[in-house]
Amino acid sequence: MQGGIDNAVSELTERENDKVDILAFSVGGVIAWKYGVESRRIGSLYCVSSTRLRHEKIRPEGEIELYFGHRDEYRPDNEWLNGMDVNYEVISDQGHGIYMDQMFAESLSRHIIGKTGHVSMAP
User: Fold this and answer.
1) Would 46 be classed as within a structural domain?
2) What is the pTM (predicted TM-score) of this model?
3) Regions of the chain short of the pLDDT cut 70
4) What is the extent of the structural domain holding 35?
């Protein structure tokens, strides 16, 4: 797993030259996080169910919002969340698969579009 994460971070670092806004799910969140630490090119980062973040020690620059289901047993604890100085929300009655909930996805999409004013997809 770690080799794949490192390869993905390396690819992003080579391909992205400007600051980017990223929406990431699950393991994609730790890839984006590590990319931000390494490149310093995160404008904003939105992570959903990115439980592997709990192992990270360094916070990337940029605006960060994290979303976890309350029943996701691997979500970072409040001490980690508060120590990283990130905006976060723990959604009740949800587990790791919160990103599959249509109402949550629509609400988060509207929120991101409202903040960034755009949506673009990576190739």
Assistant:
1) yes
2) 0.90
3) 1-2, 118-123
4) 2-115
DSSP state of 7: H
pLDDT of the residue at 3: 84
For residue 36, give the CATH number of its domain: 3.40.50.1820
Asked whether the beta carbons of 103 and 88 are under 8 A apart, the reply is no
**Are 29 and 50 a contacting pair, CB within 8 Å?**
yes
| Domains: count for the chain | 1
CA–CA distance, 95 with 111 (Å, rounded to integer)? 21
- 122 found inside a domain: no
Residue 123 CB partners (closer than 8 Å, separation 6+): none
Q: How far apart are CA 56 and CA 34, in angstroms?
A: 8
Q: Do residues 45 and 33 touch, judged by C-beta distance below 8 A? A: yes
